[in-house]
Write a structure and sequence with these properties.
This protein is mostly helical. The protein contains 5 helices and no strands. The radius of gyration is 17 Å and the shape is elongated.
């Protein structure tokens, strides 16, 4: 389940890298509930937005690849550190991203964050006892 969750995020991250117009459309829809560009912007500004979204996609691609590798090996083998290696960074991301999102009032991103967190929280919670020696 962890690998599947990471694969979903990995696929969406690749959209930001490979189809910047689609990624911008998705963000406008999620963040601002609009199907069009949020502001009329010069091509250089649009290029910067696509670049920034691509960087987000690249970071997420690297992170999800790491999660998949840990989930495939040490996590499946039940190595205790693997649970923390997946759960702790996800928790840190969630707290920081949600705080920043709330501070800026971008409620669509908060919903997206909660959905993403649930993709991982459900299988991580189900596996927790196995990694904590039945606690």
């Amino acid at each position: 389940m962890i690998q599947a969750a990471a694969a979903v995020i990995l696929a969406l991250s690749c959209v930001l890298l490979l189809a910047p117009e689609t990624g911008a459309f998705f963000f406008n829809l999620v963040y601002y509930q609009q199907r069009v560009e949020t502001v009329a912007a010069p091509e250089t500004t649009r290029g910067y937005i696509y670049f920034a979204n691509g960087i987000i996609g690249a970071v997420m691609t690297g992170w999800m690849t790491g999660i998949i590798l840990v989930a495939r090996g040490p996590f499946e083998a039940g190595q205790k550190w693997a649970w923390d290696a997946i759960a702790v960074p996800l928790g840190v991301w969630f707290v920081i991203d949600c705080a920043f999102t709330i501070a800026h009032g971008v409620w669509g991103n908060l919903v997206l964050n909660i959905g993403t967190a649930l993709l991982f929280a459900i299988p991580l919670t189900a596996a927790r006892k196995r990694f904590r020696g039945g606690e």
